[in-house]
Amino acid sequence: MPHRALSLLLTFEDQLRRDEAQSPAFLHRRDRNFALARQAEGKTTEVRDWLAHLQRFNGPESKPANDRRLIRWQHINAGFALLGLLLGSLTMAGLMFYDGRGRINLTVIIAVVLVQAVLAVFTTVQALAGWQPWRWLTRQLALADAGGTSGLRPLHPQLMARAAHLGGLCFGLSGLATLLVLVTVKDLAFGWSTTLNAGAESFYSLARALAWPWHALWAEAAPTLELVSQTRFYRATGGYHHTDPQLWGAWWPFVTMLWFAYVVVPRLLLLWFAGGHLHYRAGQLLQRHPGRMALYERMATPTLDTGSTREEVTTAPDLATATRLRPRPATCHAVVLWAGADPRSPGRALPDSQGPVVSAGGAASLADDHHALQAVARHVHPLAHPEVGLFTRAWEPPTAELADFLEQARTLWPKHTRINLMPLAADPSTPPPPHQLAQWLRFAERQRDPGVIICAGVGP
Asked: CA-CA distance, 184 to 127, in Å (whole number)?
């Protein structure tokens, strides 16, 4: 999704979740020092600058994984587009069906076009009002932000409106293309008919009103009173000998412009508006985000000077915890590669694995994580003392997603399984620096699980 405000909002929320593992005092010193440094340089301290500053501490090999939330919505947009293409072609083929006996009723075509225009307006209104008539679909597609709170939840009305307008635009374009093909390869006979007591003058007034946007650009696409009078038909009438056959096909410019002006153009304009509205709403949510208010409060509030000469932002936290580093095991019964961590790059080697090597976390879906857990469980359940190696990137702080993964592992794997968390350094030839290992030691201590240990070293 090419929405900078939306991507910025999601990146900001992800950073806030990572900061939950840090102490308030550390966050205060880090953000206050950042603000002072930016002010001394005469630069701004916006959220975008703050995120760019923190990104530099993620290591040279770190690349942000594709956000599963945005990818899921891209798939929904593609689904709506494909559905619109199919339904547009089928709808136009049905409206243009002509076997030489009846007539293609313009009244029905006008009704379908007006319904499409009303649906387009309604879609925009529901997005502006924040309604969610698509809530049932978001639940079916598991879009309710499984795995935690997300900035996408309040944007569901705008996201669904954008997908619906994209589908509507594809519907209109597909229908227009089908109409032009049928006009070229078939002899279509148009007419108008209604049960109501309406004369030719009334239908002529309606047609001229609908043709007002283009009547000066394409005169043939604006019907005349003679054409309207000569092409009225009744199904009970068997013969049409009194009407020039060419008049029955003279309606096609009007039908083409009617479909283009009231189906394609509104959807195109409203799709552009929906993109701008989504960008605006994401910016509003970021401006009003409680985390943003707390961030600026930390930036503006001076820290208490204790007289220490240490630069707390760049100095490693105290490692005096109950959890201690252990050496890496030489063998593991299974290996899990978390969030793209790969020890098989040059200069590194996997421990001798007697079982599966699976990937989880990062760009993997929740279903993929569950399949990885089950694959390991099937292998380690028969073992007396199973050991699982879980590789992570040392420079990326532990996330709540990893904690949830370990909690599920305890329910699926044997209770006595030893889980070796092995953070990888950015440089394959050196072990992770102490300040990176410190966050993993604190993470293991918070798990309150003696079977979760942190292993350090360059290789097994």
From this structure: 39
